[in-house]
Amino acid sequence: MGTDPLARLVDLPGGIFRMGGDDPDRYLDDGEDPVRDVKLSPFAISATAVTTAEFASFVEATDHRTTAEIETWSFVFGGHLPDDFPETRGVVGAEWWRQVHGADWRHPEGPHSDLAGRADHPVVHLSWFDAVAFSEWAGGRLPTEAEWEYAARGGLDQARLPWGDDLMPGGEHRCNIWTGTFPSEDTAEDGYAGTCPVDAFAPNGFGLHNCSGNVWEWCADWFATRHPGERPLVDPTGPPLGTDRVVKGGSFLCHDSYCYRYRPAARSATAPVDTTCHRGLRLAL
């Protein structure tokens, strides 16, 4: 896999699709519903999330310093830290998140870690501002939420997942999410505990890999739970202002008992300055 993110763009025709969902197990406060008709112009989107090798090329060319590097810390999943790792600040109600000084895109689990063997893994610990900076340097942009969801669905209408409704068709794992009991035991039955290569699983009907799980992906839109009433919506870009940006796709930490957000319709809100070990981006054009 090379280091030019534009080399893996997939051209999509656009058109009208049904966005959002009414899954009975959805999180009502996330604003997935109502299902709504959206009309999109043709666009292109990367078949995979941006890799650490691609991001390294950007940093080498621009000397960009990420938000996590400037702030000198980022959030790391506590289960991926050594048993003797010093106590650090956590998150109330989500104590598995740990503030780790020295954690950044080069050191995903903190200063004791590196990118060895992860050139084809998704780059993580990026803020929305880092994602925008990379996208502009690469000659692209972040996808809108509507574009991301249309692409992730792979041409399927209201399927629960990018490949259909069954999480494991034929008993086969199709994505990198938490397997086991969250957050105490990850059995890694899908082959991975943590991130996996960006093309590790079979693509959807549009040729996109890992639109469920692995890492959350930044979108261009501000987050809102109320949606415009006109139908169909044409090339929606979200509200003009907000406090959080939309992220889509879920991550390797998602489990249906805790974060059932690895479905294309699902969404979450994240402050644009936040950085974690399970958030990256996919490029659009």
Q: Could you outline the blueprint of secondary structure elements for this entry?
A:
Elements: E1 9-12, E2 15-19, E3 36-40, E4 43-46, H1 52-62, H2 67-71, E5 73-77, E6 90-91, E7 94-101, H3 128-138, H4 145-153, E8 180-181, E9 185-186, E10 216-222, E11 233-234, E12 245-248, E13 268-270, E14 279-280
Parallel strand pairs: 3-11, 10-14
Antiparallel strand pairs: 1-4, 2-3, 5-7, 6-7, 8-9, 10-12, 12-13
Please, could you describe this protein's structure?
By secondary structure, the protein is an alpha+beta fold. It is 13% helix and 19% strand. The protein contains four helices and 14 strands.
Task: Please give a handful of descriptors for the protein shown.
paralog of FGE (formylglycine-generating enzyme), four-stranded mixed sheet, 4 helices, 14 strands, 285 residues, three-stranded mixed sheet, single chain, alpha+beta
Strand order of the largest sheet: 13-12-10-14
N-C termini distance: 20 Å
Strand proportion = 15-25%
Residue runs with pLDDT of under 50 for 5 or more positions:
none
Structural class designation: alpha+beta
Q: List the domain count as a whole number.
A: 1
* Structural shape: globular
CATH H-level homologous superfamily name: paralog of FGE (formylglycine-generating enzyme)
With helices defined by DSSP (H or I, 4 residues minimum), what is the helix count?
4
> Compute the gyration radius: what is it?
18 Å
CATH fold name: paralog of FGE (formylglycine-generating enzyme)
DSSP summary, beta strand count: 14
Mean of all residue-level pLDDT scores: 96
